C-alpha cells in the first residue's frame, strides 16, 4: 500500500524525523488559510499523487509551457493562484500512464534554503536478504539515471537484523554522503529513526529524494515516499485509514477483495495465470510475439471457482482488452476448477473477445473436456508458445 507524501511525513515526524511544516488541502477555498499557517516567505505547492517525477510533470489541461506539479511561491497570493490552477487537473509524469492522474490533494509546505541534495532509500535488498540503505550524493535526480550513468556514486549499506543499525553502518553512510559538522551529528539520530520507522511499520520502501543539507548545516527530509508490505497490514490497522482508493485502479481494488495479485498495464491482451513466475513468462512471450499484456494477474495456487470467476470478470471489465489468454499449469491448482470458473464468468458477463486457453497439469484432461463441452468459442493451445502465437494472431485479426 502506498501513501501520500504528506501522510508519510506526518508518520516520520512521530519518529523525530526533521521535516518542514506543511498543510494538506483538498479545496482551493482552503489555500489562503493553509498558507498563512506557515512562516514563509517561501512556500512550496506540491501535488499529492502516487507517482514520482511530479516536479517535471505536465498538466494535460494547461499546455506544455505550464509549470509542473511542484511549484515555488513567494507570496500567499501566489500560493492561492497555483492551487486554483493545479487542483482538479490531470498531471502526467514519467511514472504515470499517458492518461495521468487527477490531482485531488495538494500539500502546502514551508520552503527550505538548500545547500546540497542527497538521495536516500531503505528497502529490502534480496541479493543479501537484509534491509539496506541506498545512499547517493546525487539527490534530486532519478536514481535509475544515476545508477546507469555513475553507478560508483551509489552506496548500498546492508543492516544486520540481529544488531540493527550500528556505529559501523552510520559511519559508512556519513562517509558516503560526505557529511560533517551539524549534518553529521544530525545523521546519527536521523538514520536510526528512519530505520526504526521502516521496521516497526513493516515498510517495503522508504525513499527520501531529496534529503537535503540546508544552508545552516542541518539535515531535513524534503520529500518522502513510503510503501507498506501488504502482507503485514493485519498488524497495522491504523495504517488502513491512510489508504487513498482514488489513487488506485478500480480493477486492482476489486481484485484485492478476492486476494488476487492484479496489476493493470497498458496493453490489450488480458492474462489469467497461476503463479507469479509463470505470469511474468506469459507477459514476456506476449511481448515477444509483438503484442502487449493488459495486466498481470496471478490467481494463486489454490484458487476456488469463485475466485477464478472474479478474476475473469475483472479482465473482461477492462475496455482495452481485445483478447484473453488463460495459462494454467496445475499443481495445487486444478485445471477443472479453472475451466469451471471461466465458464461461470462467461455465462455471467458474456464473451466478446477471442479466448485462448492453455491447460497443463492436475486434472488437465477433465479441464479440457469441460471447456470442450461448454459450447464456448474457446481456442485451445498445446503449450505456452502456441497459446501466445494464437492470441496475438487473434487480436491482430490474422
Outline the fold blueprint.
Blueprint: H1 5-13, E1 22-25, H2 31-36, E2 43-47, E3 58-59, E4 70-73, H3 76-86, E5 90-92, E6 101-102, E7 106-110, E8 114-125, E9 130-136, H4 143-149, E10 154-158, H5 167-177, H6 181-200, E11 203-214, E12 219-221, E13 225-228, H7 250-257, E14 261-264, E15 269-273, H8 276-288, E16 295-298, H9 305-316, E17 323-330, H10 335-349, E18 355-361, H11 364-372, E19 378-380, H12 384-396
Parallel strand pairs: 15-17, 17-18, 18-19
Antiparallel strand pairs: 1-7, 2-4, 2-7, 3-5, 5-6, 8-9, 8-11, 9-10, 11-12, 11-13, 14-16
Helix pairs in contact: 9-10, 10-11
In words, what does this structure look like?
- The chain is built from 12 helices and 19 strands.
- With 398 residues, it is α+β, with helices and mostly antiparallel strands.
- The protein has 3 domains: 21-110, ATP-grasp fold, A domain (Dna Ligase, domain 1), CATH 3.30.1490; 114-238, D-amino Acid Aminotransferase, Chain A, domain 1 (2-Layer Sandwich), CATH 3.30.470; 250-396, 3-Layer(aba) Sandwich (Rossmann fold).
- The strands form 5 sheets. Strands 8, 9, 10, 11, 12 and 13 form a 6-stranded antiparallel sheet that branches. A 4-stranded antiparallel sheet has the order 1-7-2-4.
- The longest helix is centred in the middle third of the chain and has 20 residues, at 181-200.
- The two termini are 41 Å apart.
- The model has no long low-confidence stretch (mean pLDDT 91).
Brief digest:
The protein has 398 residues and is an alpha+beta fold. Helix content is 34%, strand content 25%.
Number of strands: 19
Instruction: Based on Cα principal axes, name the global outline.
Output: globular
The number of helical elements comes to 12
- The first-to-last residue Cα distance is 41 Å
GO molecular function: succinate-CoA ligase (ADP-forming) activity
Family: Belongs to the succinate/malate CoA ligase beta subunit family.
Binding site for Mg(2+): 209, 223
Binding site for substrate: 274, 331-333
Amino acid at each position: 500500500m502506498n501513501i501520500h507524501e504528506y501522510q508519510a511525513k506526518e508518520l516520520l515526524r512521530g519518529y523525530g524525523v526533521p521535516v518542514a511544516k506543511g498543510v494538506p488541502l483538498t479545496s482551493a477555498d482552503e489555500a489562503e488559510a493553509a498558507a498563512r499557517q506557515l512562516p514563509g516567505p517561501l512556500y512550496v505547492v506540491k501535488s499529492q499523487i502516487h507517482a514520482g517525477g511530479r516536479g517535471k510533470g505536465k498538466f494535460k489541461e494547461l499546455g506544455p509551457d505550464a509549470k509542473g506539479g511542484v511549484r515555488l511561491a513567494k507570496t500567499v497570493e501566489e500560493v492561492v493562484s497555483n492551487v486554483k490552477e493545479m487542483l482538479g487537473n490531470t498531471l502526467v509524469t514519467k511514472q504515470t500512464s499517458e492518461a495521468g492522474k487527477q490531482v485531488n490533494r495538494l500539500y502546502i509546505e514551508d520552503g527550505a534554503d538548500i545547500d546540497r541534495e542527497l538521495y536516500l532509500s531503505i528497502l529490502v535488498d534480496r541479493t543479501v536478504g537484509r534491509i539496506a540503505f541506498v545512499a547517493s550524493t546525487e539527490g534530486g535526480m532519478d536514481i535509475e539515471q544515476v545508477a546507469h550513468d555513475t553507478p560508483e556514486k551509489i552506496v548500498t549499506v546492508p543492516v544486520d537484523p540481529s544488531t540493527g543499525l550500528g556505529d559501523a553502518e552510520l559511519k559508512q553512510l556519513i562517509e558516503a554522503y560526505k557529511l560533517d559538522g551539524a549534518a553529521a551529528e544530525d545523521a546519527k539520530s536521523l538514520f536510526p529513526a528512519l530505520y526504526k520507522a521502516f521496521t516497526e511499520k513493516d515498510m517495503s520502501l522508504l525513499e527520501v529524494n531529496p534529503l537535503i543539507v540546508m544552508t545552516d548545516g542541518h539535515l531535513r527530509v524534503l520529500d518522502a515516499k513510503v510503501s507498506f508490505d501488504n502482507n503485514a497490514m493485519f498488524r497495522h490497522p491504523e495504517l488502513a485509514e491512510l489508504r487513498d482508493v482514488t489513487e488506485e485502479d478500480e480493477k486492482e481494488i476489486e481484485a484485492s477483495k478476492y486476494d488476487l495479485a492484479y496489476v493493470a498495464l497498458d496493453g490489450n491482451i488480458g492474462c489469467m495465470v497461476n503463479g507469479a513466475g509463470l505470469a511474468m513468462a506469459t507477459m514476456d512471450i506476449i511481448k515477444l510475439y509483438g503484442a502487449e499484456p493488459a495486466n498481470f494477474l496471478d490467481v494463486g495456487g489454490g484458487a476456488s471457482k469463485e475466485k477464478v470467476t472474479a478474476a475473469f470478470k475483472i479482465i473482461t471489465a477492462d475496455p482495452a482488452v481485445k483478447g484473453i489468454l488463460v495459462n494454467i499449469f496445475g499443481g495445487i491448482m486444478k485445471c477443472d476448477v479453472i475451466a469451471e470458473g471461466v465458464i461461470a464468468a462467461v455465462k455471467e458477463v458474456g464473451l466478446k473477445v477471442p479466448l485462448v486457453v492453455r491447460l497443463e497439469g492436475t486434472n488437465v484432461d477433465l479441464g479440457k473436456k469441460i471447456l470442450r463441452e461448454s459450447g464456448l468459442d474457446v481456442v485451445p493451445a498445446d503449450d505456452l508458445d502456441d497459446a501466445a502465437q494464437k492470441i496475438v494472431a487473434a487480436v491482430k485479426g490474422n
